Queue: 2 jobs
Job 1
Amino acid sequence: MKKRIVRIKDIAERAETSKGTVDRVLHNRGRVSEEVREKVLKIIEEMNYEPNFLAQSLKTQRTYQFIALVPDPKTDPYWEAPEIGLAKAEKELRQYGISISRFIFDPHDEESFISRAREATAENPDGLLVAPLFYKEVLPFFKEWENSNIPYVLFNTQIADVNPLCYIGQDSYQSGFLAAKILTFGLPSACTMMVLHINEDLPNSAHLITKEKGFKDYFVKNNLTDKYRVIETEINFVQGESFDEKFGQIISSAGDLKAIYVTNSRAFEIAGYLERNQIKDIKLIGYDLVPRNIHYINNGYIDFVINQNPLGQGYWGIFQLANYLVFKKEIAPIKFLPLDIITLENLEYYLDPEQ
Amino acid sequence: MKKRIVRIKDIAERAETSKGTVDRVLHNRGRVSEEVREKVLKIIEEMNYEPNFLAQSLKTQRTYQFIALVPDPKTDPYWEAPEIGLAKAEKELRQYGISISRFIFDPHDEESFISRAREATAENPDGLLVAPLFYKEVLPFFKEWENSNIPYVLFNTQIADVNPLCYIGQDSYQSGFLAAKILTFGLPSACTMMVLHINEDLPNSAHLITKEKGFKDYFVKNNLTDKYRVIETEINFVQGESFDEKFGQIISSAGDLKAIYVTNSRAFEIAGYLERNQIKDIKLIGYDLVPRNIHYINNGYIDFVINQNPLGQGYWGIFQLANYLVFKKEIAPIKFLPLDIITLENLEYYLDPEQ
DNA sequence: AAATAATATGTGTTCGTGCACATTGTAGGA
DNA sequence: TCCTACAATGTGCACGAACACATATTATTT
């Protein structure tokens, strides 16, 4: 069952022509009579020719510059993970001539995003990976990139009605829906649950609203609105201010509160509060394996987190660009990463970055 | 920041010698004076030479034959998934000269395993991927493979005190532990839980015993033995026999039964029973996304499954062989795949085989 | 000292592809 | 009829590594 590799030379022989001509047919370089062209195409089909990727890549020595337009990891530990994924992809893809430049912006500063995006565009890269945190600000760049035919991959934040090469991330709606399911599973009796947005600029964060909607819809779709009361709260945690006092008031006015669903990776703020006040009968669910969340999973104040796999988002984002540009694969426009449910007992298996 | 690729020729120039000599140093082919050898090695180090994998692979045209010694998918749908993973790895690795032969055995017949393993060994492959279901029978083959220096990767069933290239699969103990956690989370009140082994030859299935131990230990370690009663049952489901009657008796004699933990992928047998008898207050947790389990997750009779990611096991198994033999990477001796918790609300994201 | 053996080092071809360049073929204009 | 223009086709080199083979250098024997 030894599969003989079909080479350009083999095709040329069968077609009674030379490898130059076959090459011209393969790459549509013209200067081939229609008659020969068809004959060669037919034989290519028949012999099931597949270009030898190794030889191709060795010969052309083509290099690809990708740019990752991502938030500064120093501002929020969440953004450390995509960088790890980027680095992993970079390492694996270097031998194919792919290099990745980072253009780092401040996730709380639109202006910094705009100037970094300008710089990135000026570099005229072969592909872009973008965390499009600022909806309004990023739109004109999409246009620009489309005009210059630069494929761009979006991750973390899904944006409707644009045409990226693909989106990589989670289904925000469904992740809210899942959070509701888990909490309901653990709280068979009627109670109050809270959706909590911490330190977020909500009008600019459509995906958080989508999570909240998914969470609330779970109760509607399962006819549980009479049993559970869902309240929504926003809170800003400012260093130095008395968070505990502020949040204590919120809790005491919330009635029979038994569960809190934090829509971003800052569940550790609440876990800290619960620990300081020795509150053990409020279930807490949040997002992401950032170090402080891991700490509170380990000591039991966070019950579950949903892993958004930010590492995988960075990794797959770059890989999709490579798949498209280098390996010429078809790319599905959306790659939803799984909604991993993580709790103390399966935590450690998600910490291995090798995965 | 353009990284100039370092070639053998570059090293030869810097060392004032020829590429032939550098090549001899690189491959320890001898016939090089100690003096030159050291100089070349030093320069290789200095210039940070990394062989161009593409050129290497193109030139050598080395082919690798891997053999997958796996159970017949026709006997149990669980075994369909590793085959999909194998096929995926095969496709990605074909261009590196890797081919995979399947040696399929009957998972209920030791003899068929032995004869397939004999045949596989006789082929003298470059690497083996084995599901070592039969502990006693597989041991002598490990010896043989080690003597012939054939690396072998184990998956699905972990075996102690042998030296595979690596093991790929789950931590059975921890998965039982996790199952107990989930059920306890959903059942805050005291009740009885059942560990159920369906159609299994227990003495030959150490990993199922390990799961059971993990499950039971959860209650011990969390001081819950007074609250929850855990019972253990084995049942064989034979086509045609009245399963419902047999199982009905088991249930009714079990007292306040509120949860069943099925240790293999056959939770669907119980789900079917629960559906036929319209029992809705028994939580059911099992393993794996086989089609019939998916069916019962969708209609609510299975609450959770833990995904053993059999597809990933096949995929990674082959990839580890390739990483070791072809890409010369270091291989960690154990690769535990995550304990994915799957329920209706996040099911679909685990069904995409592309992941 | 010359012949031979043994060791050390250098050169050239090959893998499959892409592309530059060389060659052949043919039609049309002088 | 010869020359030119241009389309059609063929040839050869390069990419980086591996290996066979050729050549140079030194050591050993006669």
Job 2
Amino acid sequence: MPYHSTPLDLAFHALSDPTRRAVVSRLAQGEVPVSALAEPFDMALPSFAQHLKVLEQCGLIVSEKRGRSRWCKLVPARFDEAADWMEAERRRWAERLDRLEVYLDKNEEDEAHDKPA
Amino acid sequence: MPYHSTPLDLAFHALSDPTRRAVVSRLAQGEVPVSALAEPFDMALPSFAQHLKVLEQCGLIVSEKRGRSRWCKLVPARFDEAADWMEAERRRWAERLDRLEVYLDKNEEDEAHDKPA
DNA sequence: AGAATGGTAAGGCATATGCCTTAGTAACGC
DNA sequence: GCGTTACTAAGGCATATGCCTTACCATTCT
């Protein structure tokens, strides 16, 4: 999706794959080396490494090579951007429903007093 | 991404495009017909319609044809699944950091009392 | 009825994605 | 040094994505 690819685009794209979400999920535990991360997945290592590359390129994780293994860890900032966007939308949606409810209640009241629109 | 495509995959994929996020964002206002939704975008209508199709197929929106225009509205449930997943991860992450902090504080205290690990 | 409006269908094109295999390279273990 | 371990590079293949254009309906306006 390099047509546009803002950080948010990339983060959501990264999270649209179950393998990558599982990695993110696992990294809540802290740092994990690539081999340990890859172990649960029935996938060739190079394929799995691509997923890590996607996560790293969009800034959801960082990694560092120590000896012959590479350790990965989450970067909450990028994750938060996406989560914050979702919460903000959720709030906007909820506010609209609240206003709608107030409006409906008001009309009901008016009707009770014989003052329809 | 029909390799896997759970609802969560599809929702995140749908949200990875800025045009589609803008549509979701706009629909917080309520129902909007396709032409009005499409108006801000410099894109042929059929291209835009594809984006709506993606949103509808993953359950983020529903639409209904009235007369010759189609009205779209948000479906919060699917959106919430994605938002909930993100919040749950965020919480797990925060909890781990809390435990880490407690652990570090404890060690600091121990050191102060001359009892290192 | 005939034209305009609001989509929808169909198909085409360039690029991206997700997987694979094979072939390296760098660090450790003996 | 030599084999093993842990990745990394390179390239290939099928399918998906995002855009386009050119038809083609329905519905509504005049």
